[in-house]
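hey so i finaly got around to running the thing on Endonuclease III from Buchnera aphidicola. pasting the sequence first so u can double check i didnt mess up the copy paste, my clipboard has been acting weird all day
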Amino acid sequence: MNKEKRYEILSLFNIKYPKPKIELIFSSDFELLLSVMLSAQSTDTIVNKTTKILFKIANTPESILSLGLKCLKNYIKDIGLYNTKALNIIRSSFLILTKYNGMVPNNRIELESLPGVGRKTSNVLLNILFKKKTIAVDRHVFRVSNRTNFAKGKNVKEVEMKLMKVVPNIFKLNFHAWFVLHGRYICTARKIQCNICLIFKLCEFNKKKV
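ok and heres what it spat out for the 3d tokens, dont ask me to read them lol
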């Protein structure tokens, strides 16, 4: 795909969705950190349902540690890999409290030093909380980027590196949200809805459905 077509695609998204938001519900930096950690291999719907209850009880590093591992597991047991996630949340809460003065770190190195925080999670946090021009590549972004020929790659790191090169800076802050929502509701894994696709005429997928 050439740069002119990419620019046109992003311009359409920008006009249609000038202020896109991720669907995770949070009211603080720490709440978003926990929500993104919980969202791995889980849906935002399940995470929001879980955190709606959890955050009323514990939504700070101190209160999470006071809750304890066993109780935390009980609150998040409906989420996939909850045993591992609970342990990572406890460990990360301890580090944030003792090493980072209770604040979620605002740089990649420190974020990725937290247990359970990988590159995708740190990209989401840097982008949303600290307005950094990072691009997180999850399964939706990976699928849409490859399917449309916007940025092809064999793995998420490859796609991310290409996106960072081809997405103009003015669109980087919103890119992740645009492609996530497009992949979640329009260009889905099982069913593509080309009839209502905003970028149908520009997409280079060779199996588009009219």
